[in-house]
Backbone:
């Protein structure tokens, strides 16, 4: 698309610019027009079908089935083609000296990225986040019920890393914070009371790696001070007992 835009640069600079200056707002540079046609002819008609296929493949991948992850990645690259290309267009326009009219025209063209990204968020990304929340909630309930708290923390660690890696492959970078927040909420925050009731053996046995893992995630939850207070009390108590033992020698 960038190559075509370069070939038609004379047309863009003169005819398109002249029409825009005359008040027309239904015209675009060749590069932007190609992106709009791609959206209307390919993206919108196939979007729902592609979304269902992608989400089903991701569900199977989470259940340890072998899938072609590159296929999903390619689909998402096509979805983001317009957004990245328009961002590139705006970057190119900033590298050369242009007058206010041409800047206005480029600003007008750049507005088409908003509905495109919104469409993607309403279909694939919202479905992806919802499926992630459902899967992690079900998995965490079953795993925490049948396993020791130390094993659960290791599971949380591996699940978060896996979901972040998957999100980097399949989601736009602006959605990653939402994905991480959902995972941490479902895996940690929703189970805080249960974790608190079962974590004290980690402290008394001084399982340092598990404690580091615990505080790494609990520390991200606002207004959660029970673990910190319990640890401080334990350390103080152990210190006092050690001092008493030394004083009796």
Residues:
């Amino acid at each position: 698309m960038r190559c075509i835009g370069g070939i038609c640069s004379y047309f863009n600079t003169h005819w398109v610019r002249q029409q825009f200056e005359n008040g027309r707002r239904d015209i675009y540079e060749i590069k932007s027009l190609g992106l709009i046609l791609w959206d209307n002819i390919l993206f919108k008609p196939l979007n729902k079908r592609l979304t269902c296929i992608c989400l089903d493949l991701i569900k199977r991948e989470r259940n340890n089935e072998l899938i072609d992850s590159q296929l999903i990645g390619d689909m998402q690259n096509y979805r983001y083609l317009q957004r990245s290309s328009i961002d590139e267009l705006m970057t190119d326009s900033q590298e050369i000296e242009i007058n206010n009219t041409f800047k206005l025209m480029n600003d007008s063209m750049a507005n088409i990225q908003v509905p495109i990204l919104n469409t993607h968020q309403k279909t694939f990304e919202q479905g992806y986040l919802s499926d992630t929340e459902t899967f992690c909630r079900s998995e965490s309930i079953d795993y925490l019920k049948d396993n020791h708290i130390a094993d659960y923390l290791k599971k949380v660690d591996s699940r978060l890393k896996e979901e972040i890696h998957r999100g980097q492959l399949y989601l736009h970078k602006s959605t990653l914070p939402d994905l991480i927040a959902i995972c941490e909420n479902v895996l940690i925050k929703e189970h805080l009371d249960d974790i608190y009731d079962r974590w004290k053996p980690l402290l008394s046995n001084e399982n340092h790696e598990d404690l580091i893992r615990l505080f790494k995630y609990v520390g991200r939850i606002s207004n959660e001070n029970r673990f910190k207070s319990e640890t401080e009390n334990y350390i103080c108590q152990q210190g006092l007992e050690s001092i008493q033992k030394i004083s009796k020698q």
In short: The two ends are 83 Å apart (CA to CA). Residues 202 and 208 are 8 Å apart (CA to CA). Residues 113-146 form the longest helix (34 residues). Residues 113-249 form a domain with the 5 helical Cullin repeat like fold (CATH 1.20.1310.10).
